[in-house]
Amino acid sequence: MKNKFNIVLYEPEIPQNTGNIARLCACTNSDLYLVGKLGFSIDSRHVKRAGLDYWDSVNIVRVESLEKLKEEFPRNTFYYLTTKSKNVYTDVKFKDGDFLVFGPETRGLPEDLLNANPGNSITIPMQEGQRSLNLSNSVAIVVYEAIRQNT
């Protein structure tokens, strides 16, 4: 794959989701950024099992905060996935090097972050009355749309 996208998990809580996403990153040539406090040990057997034998094929970067990550990549575009936006992910024109930021499974991204970035806060449409999709499914949906747009 010629284009590279960056997957950001902000304070992920469920090791199996992170393992699945790491495997997805390996298969899509995406880098995986784990930001802030993790809800599990990266050495967890659940993380390792979900990632299977893909761990050597993915670039995983630990970052203290989203602010530090944005400082490191000031020219890149950051998109924030949330159920609290009317901006649909398919309306975005993704480009090489974009960062796709996903929040923790139980609470999502912080409101102040979304309020500060309304134009870059995007959503995956779903049936009204449902809370959210599984995190690893959401990452797969959006990263493959970005890849589709750029192939």
Using brief descriptors, characterize the structure shown.
6-stranded parallel β-sheet; 32% helix; 5 helices; 6 strands; alpha/beta
Mind sketching the topology for me?
Blueprint: E1 6-10, H1 15-28, E2 31-35, H2 45-51, E3 60-63, H3 66-72, E4 78-81, E5 99-102, H4 111-116, E6 121-122, H5 135-149
Parallel strand pairs: 1-2, 1-5, 2-3, 4-5, 4-6
Helix pairs in contact: 1-2, 1-5
Kindly report how far apart the N and C termini lie.
8 Å
Give Rg in angstroms. 14 Å
What's the helix count? 5
Mean pLDDT: 91
Strand content: 15-25%
Shape: globular
Q: How are the strands of the largest sheet arranged?
A: 3-2-1-5-4-6
* Share in helix: 25-40%
Q: Which stretches of 5+ consecutive residues score pLDDT under 50?
A: none
Per DSSP E runs of 2 or more residues, the count of β-strands stands at 6
Order of helices and strands: EHEHEHEEHEH
What structural category characterises the helix and strand content? Answer: alpha/beta
The largest β sheet comes out as: 6 strands, parallel
